[in-house]
Design goal:
The complex is a heterodimer. Chain A has no helices and eleven strands. By secondary structure, chain A is mostly beta strands. In chain A, strands 2, 4, 5, 6, 9, 10 and 11 form a seven-stranded mixed β-sheet that branches. Chain A has a four-stranded antiparallel β-sheet with strand order 1-3-8-7, with no helix packed on it. By secondary structure, chain B is mostly beta strands. Helix content of chain B is 0%, strand content 48%. Chain B has no helices and eleven strands. In chain B, the strands form two sheets. In chain B, strands 2, 4, 5, 6, 9, 10 and 11 form a seven-stranded mixed β-sheet that branches. A four-stranded antiparallel β-sheet of chain B has the order 1-3-8-7, with no helix packed on it. Classes of the chains: A mainly beta, B mainly beta. At the A-B interface, strand 5 and strand 10 of A face strand 5, strand 9 and strand 10 of B.
Chain lengths: 117, 112
């Protein structure tokens, strides 16, 4: 079955960087569009970014202001999110999700990112 | 950005009784392809969101038929015909008609 496993979260100081990974299995990753979503403590989900199957089409939430970069490696069945210049308000659980026909069908369990000095 | 507004924010329900959640969007969710991309998610404590309903009224695989969705344009509703204990959690609507995709603020369903 579809499995998505995020990793790379942890504690980082303000201004620091992190790269999150999402390992995919159980479906044809190279043919799937993927997204990143985050959820701050006690808040609702926030859509962050979308990448097409080939990586040629990418969208970001305006709130990220160029600090985050989505990418993928279809040979490794992996999705990535590079996060730079992190702020306290970026503290959240970060989820990757598989998108099919503009629906977020499958989600990973998430990885926690904490930005604090 | 399209703003999604859910009501109520909290819904205490007696087991076996119905529950209803409203979701209103700040603009029409009808895409240029004629499809309305409005979905509903359930999030149980400590779990990621789970897709329940897509394109207004289609139940996702494995979702019990006590869950139903309806609506059009800017007004949408999720109904649970008879609430069971496992339905406790927070429910979110989401629009994927226009980037950035946006979620409602969530409705907490709890047992009275």
């Amino acid at each position: 079955q579809v499995q998505l496993v995020e990793s790379g979260g942890g504690l980082v100081t303000p201004g620091g960087s992190l790269r999150l990974s999402c390992a995919a299995s159980g479906f044809t990753f190279s043919g799937s569009y993927m997204t990143w979503i985050r959820q701050a403590p006690g808040k609702g989900p926030e859509w962050l970014s979308y990448i097409s199957s080939s990586g040629s089409t990418i969208y970001y939430a305006d709130s990220l202001r160029g600090r985050f970069t989505i990418s993928r490696d279809n040979a490794k069945n992996s999705l990535y999110l590079l996060m730079d210049n992190l702020r306290a308000e970026d503290t959240a659980v970060y989820y990757c999700a598989r998108e099919r026909w503009q629906e977020l069908e499958s989600w990973g369990q998430g990885t926690l990112v904490t930005v604090s000095s | 950005d399209i703003v999604m507004t859910q009501t109520p924010l909290s819904s205490p329900v007696t087991l076996g009784q119905p529950a209803s959640i409203s979701c209103k969007s700040s603009q029409s969710l009808v895409h240029s392809d004629g499809i309305t991309y409005l979905s509903w998610f359930q999030q149980r404590p400590g779990q990621p969101p789970r897709l329940l309903i897509y394109k207004i009224s289609n139940r996702f695989s494995g979702v019990p038929d006590r869950f139903s969705g309806s609506g059009a344009g800017t007004d949408f509703t999720l109904k649970i015909s008879r609430v069971e204990a496992e339905d406790v959690g927070v429910y979110y609507c989401m629009q994927s008609t226009q980037f950035p995709w946006t979620f409602g603020q969530g409705t907490k369903v709890e047992i009275k």
